């Protein structure tokens, strides 16, 4: 198992980061919050979890060990794979996941794309005694500006399971809320706009 990856950040995309380790570029799938902490060209160390399938080996990277622990724990629930586990951490913080499960908050869990009411009830039932109490840790820092921000945010939402129509509506809404033109290509914090869009969609 690969417990963590340390190296120079070679690239950051909407859903992953590439860290150069010993001349080899390792791609790690990450949440928007985790990607927001990374800067191309700088050194980074990410706790990681290797998911092995018959036809693939996928590395997932995390902002800290807490995020990694929740990612791995929720996958022990029936019907929760790595993609859904990552979506949970994209919409909710680790403490948000813990709290929702601890207080039987089905509504909050169903804000995650791919989790319906029955799925949320099952997750609560299977994990309530094992998820632990909230730690009170804060959220990740915002990312640096990137462009073209509108397409990046919309594509990020689609990658998390939302349809293109809802993604476009969310982009329009958060741009108005933030007072940013949808045609802007500079000085727009993509990770922050993506989190705002996720929050808006989760309340819909």
TrEMBL record:
<dbReference type="Pfam" id="PF01330">
    <property type="entry name" value="RuvA_N"/>
</dbReference>
<dbReference type="InterPro" id="IPR010994">
    <property type="entry name" value="RuvA_2-like"/>
</dbReference>
<dbReference type="InterPro" id="IPR036267">
    <property type="entry name" value="RuvA_C_sf"/>
</dbReference>
<keyword id="KW-0234">DNA repair</keyword>
<dbReference type="InterPro" id="IPR013849">
    <property type="entry name" value="DNA_helicase_Holl-junc_RuvA_I"/>
</dbReference>
<dbReference type="GO" id="GO:0009378">
    <property type="term" value="F:four-way junction helicase activity"/>
</dbReference>
<feature type="domain" description="Helix-hairpin-helix DNA-binding motif class 1">
    <location>
        <begin position="107"/>
        <end position="126"/>
    </location>
</feature>
<protein>
    <recommendedName>
        <fullName>Holliday junction branch migration complex subunit RuvA</fullName>
    </recommendedName>
</protein>
<dbReference type="GO" id="GO:0000400">
    <property type="term" value="F:four-way junction DNA binding"/>
</dbReference>
<dbReference type="GO" id="GO:0048476">
    <property type="term" value="C:Holliday junction resolvase complex"/>
</dbReference>
<dbReference type="Pfam" id="PF14520">
    <property type="entry name" value="HHH_5"/>
</dbReference>
<dbReference type="InterPro" id="IPR012340">
    <property type="entry name" value="NA-bd_OB-fold"/>
</dbReference>
<keyword id="KW-0238">DNA-binding</keyword>
<dbReference type="GO" id="GO:0005524">
    <property type="term" value="F:ATP binding"/>
</dbReference>
<comment type="subunit">
    <text>Homotetramer. Forms an RuvA(8)-RuvB(12)-Holliday junction (HJ) complex. HJ DNA is sandwiched between 2 RuvA tetramers; dsDNA enters through RuvA and exits via RuvB. An RuvB hexamer assembles on each DNA strand where it exits the tetramer. Each RuvB hexamer is contacted by two RuvA subunits (via domain III) on 2 adjacent RuvB subunits; this complex drives branch migration. In the full resolvosome a probable DNA-RuvA(4)-RuvB(12)-RuvC(2) complex forms which resolves the HJ.</text>
</comment>
<dbReference type="GO" id="GO:0009379">
    <property type="term" value="C:Holliday junction helicase complex"/>
</dbReference>
<dbReference type="GO" id="GO:0005737">
    <property type="term" value="C:cytoplasm"/>
</dbReference>
<dbReference type="InterPro" id="IPR000085">
    <property type="entry name" value="RuvA"/>
</dbReference>
<dbReference type="GO" id="GO:0006281">
    <property type="term" value="P:DNA repair"/>
</dbReference>
<comment type="function">
    <text>The RuvA-RuvB-RuvC complex processes Holliday junction (HJ) DNA during genetic recombination and DNA repair, while the RuvA-RuvB complex plays an important role in the rescue of blocked DNA replication forks via replication fork reversal (RFR). RuvA specifically binds to HJ cruciform DNA, conferring on it an open structure. The RuvB hexamer acts as an ATP-dependent pump, pulling dsDNA into and through the RuvAB complex. HJ branch migration allows RuvC to scan DNA until it finds its consensus sequence, where it cleaves and resolves the cruciform DNA.</text>
</comment>
<dbReference type="Pfam" id="PF07499">
    <property type="entry name" value="RuvA_C"/>
</dbReference>
<comment type="similarity">
    <text>Belongs to the RuvA family.</text>
</comment>
<dbReference type="InterPro" id="IPR011114">
    <property type="entry name" value="RuvA_C"/>
</dbReference>
<keyword id="KW-0233">DNA recombination</keyword>
<dbReference type="InterPro" id="IPR003583">
    <property type="entry name" value="Hlx-hairpin-Hlx_DNA-bd_motif"/>
</dbReference>
<keyword id="KW-0963">Cytoplasm</keyword>
<feature type="region of interest" description="Domain III">
    <location>
        <begin position="145"/>
        <end position="204"/>
    </location>
</feature>
<keyword id="KW-0227">DNA damage</keyword>
<dbReference type="GO" id="GO:0006310">
    <property type="term" value="P:DNA recombination"/>
</dbReference>
<feature type="domain" description="Helix-hairpin-helix DNA-binding motif class 1">
    <location>
        <begin position="72"/>
        <end position="91"/>
    </location>
</feature>
């Amino acid at each position: 198992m690969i417990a963590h990856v340390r190296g120079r950040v070679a690239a950051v995309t909407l859903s992953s980061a590439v860290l150069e380790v010993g001349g080899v570029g390792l791609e790690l799938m990450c949440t928007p919050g985790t990607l927001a902490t990374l800067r191309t060209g700088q050194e980074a160390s990410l706790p990681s979890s290797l998911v092995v399938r018959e036809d693939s080996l996928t590395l997932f990277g995390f902002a800290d060990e807490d995020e990694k622990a929740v990612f791995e724990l929720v996958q022990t629930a029936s019907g929760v794979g790595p993609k859904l586990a990552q979506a949970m951490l994209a919409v909710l913080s680790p403490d948000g996941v813990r709290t929702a499960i601890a207080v039987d908050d089905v509504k909050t869990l169903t804000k995650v794309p791919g989790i319906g009411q029955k799925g949320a009830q099952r997750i609560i039932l299977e994990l309530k005694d094992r998820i632990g109490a909230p730690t009170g840790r804060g959220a990740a820092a915002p990312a640096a500006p990137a462009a073209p921000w509108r397409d990046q945010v919309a594509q990020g939402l689609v990658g998390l399971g939302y349809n293109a129509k809802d993604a476009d509506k969310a982009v329009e809404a958060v741009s108005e809320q933030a007072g940013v033109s949808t045609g802007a290509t500079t000085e727009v914090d993509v990770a922050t706009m993506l989190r705002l869009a996720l929050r808006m969609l989760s309340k819909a």
